[in-house]
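Appendix B. Chain record.
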Amino acid sequence: MVAALNSDLFVGAFIKKMQSVLFGQVHDFKRKQLVVLTRMVFLYAKYQKHVKRSIVVLICVALAERIHKMARLMTSQRASPNTIKDGQAETGKPRRSGAQLDKRFFDNLRRLIAIVVPRALSKESAMLAAHTLLLIFRTFLSVAVAALDGQIVSALVRLQGQEFLWGIVRWMGMAVPATLTNSLLTYLQTVLAIRFRQNLTEHVHKKYLSGNTYYAVGNLDDRVRNADQLIAVDIRKFSDSLAELYSNLAKPTLDAFVYNVQLARSLGVESLFGIMLIIQASMGMLRVLAPPFGQLVAQEQRLEGEFHFAHSRLIEHAEEVALYRGHEAEKRSITRRYMRLVRHVSRVVRLNVFYGMLEDFVVKYFWGAAGLVACAAPVFAQRLPGTSAVAAVAESGSNDLGSRTRDFITNRRLLLSGSDALGRMMYSYKEIVELAGYTERVTDLLTVLDDVGDGRFVKTKVGTAAAKTTDEADIVSQRGRVVESTDDVEFIGVPIVSPNGDVLVRSLSFHVTPGRHLLIVGPNGCGKSSMFRILGGLWPVYGGTLRKPSVSQIFYIPQRPYLPIGTLRDQLIYPDSAAEMKAKGITDADLLDILDVVQMRHVVEREGGWDAVKLWKDALSGGDKQRIAMARLFYHRPRYAIMDECTSAVSMDIEKTMYTHATNLGITLLTVSHRQSLWQYHNYILQYDGQGGYVFSKLDPERRIQLMEEKQQIEQELASIKEMELRLQDLEMQAATY
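Structure tokens predicted for this chain:
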């Protein structure tokens, strides 16, 4: 027992000895740290002015270096715009894979801003100025609220009830202008987005709906596939993004500047500089790890447009698809486009999960912790032994608990607000790159509209056009002359070239004067409709000279007439309006007389009168549509009418009546038709052979009918001879076997 007791005493003494040694070492270590920290504080106090000057110089050097770097970037990335020549796009460098924050983005943005804010003295400029003033007022109001917050907490700590209640009253008083300012900012942002969209849409409509640009964009140029998507959706998203970005970027920038100035006065330039170093390092890391949001947004909008186009195409051709029972094929096509969109959106969501988590951690917690350390550092520095001299220079001028609490709460509020401002600036980076995607798509649309308006097209060459000869390439690269004549139509060495680059006729020449009705015949794909499109100004003239009257004197009637949305009256007078009809001195009674010619007077009563509004393409049959188109021709009474199989769905007696009335009105007919019954209304013929050749000559309908009948008879006899020869060969082979 004695031995065990001695052993326990020995162990206890050993433990106490070890604890005293360890505690002594820990105390020595803490004391050494305290000495080092105290010396650093003394050194800082001794060279405080030099430190501040060095920090200011360092900030100026960093700012100058940043400006120099941006200037070099702007000059090195001087984007040469795509030049379009010979129907192809020639670029000095490879096409970019997506939207990027480079000089091209800023140039495009300046171009669009000049459209949405047309003048310095405009409604948009006034709203931007009012928005800016409200942002400044709200920032300084936030600074005042932060100071009041510190005073309220200080009064609470000091148990000063009257001062505390007075602070609450002031707090509630500040709530009135604060809430009003926030509501006005939201209102101005919404109105700005509407104004931006209105100005940009009107600008695009002015270009898109001028002349035949809307036709050329979809048929002669391949760069824009979904103009409706760009005009209706992308312009709206760009306008909303631009209006939001101004508020979401200007307010945090102003907040960060004002809060940093206040913190520099309260905490000193040194603490603020340390915080900014941490923020810059973390922002650099976030920029490196950030996904390419601009490219992702542009790609998403392109896939959205393709998906929308697939549905629009199905609606447009619903009848044909239903007759072919092609719903499964269309379903596969639409599903394929939709799945591409879903896979892309899913990829974007997955990228946002990691980046959003990292961004929230850095902005909300890491920056907040750094700010709390900066707020607490001056307080704890005063408790270091021998630092009374340093504490004396503190701007607070007081060391009591209430003052320290007030300063800490105010600084903490400013730091959290500044951190939130920097966080919103970080979030706005994502908004900027998304804006870059919308900016690129809208600017590409404007570029295409400008090019098409100037007669420059980019068309993908396929088939025979892709392997055309040098001579054919020269034809495509040329441009002919279009001369407005008084009353005649003349093609002088004009090549008939499709938008794809196929040369259908190398040189076409013929002359038509009023009263010389022209019949045009030939196999499919030989250039009949192509010639009409050139004559109507839809396709460019690739060579030679084209003489024609003004566009208003040439009227085109296709096989499937276009019926606009509107009243029954609008179907006859299109593209005129009711006011323009009255200005011409034409009444509804005159329109009834025109309907009498095409034997459709009953339609007015049947459909509910002239002001009835229906979906006329469904309400009228195919023959009625063609007769409405002929009535439209009689209303306008042009000098020339292009008739492209426009009576294929009407009976021959009504066709005879309409053609006779057209010639009586003095309208010169240019007709494409395979009906022999129409030959009698024409006195010239332009016949294509389908091999690039043609014949232009006078037309004798009776003689031509005789020749055609004789040709058919000979062809039948030749066919019977071939059958007899085959039978003779068969009989000889059978006789040889016996």
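Further analysis of this model is presented in Appendix C.
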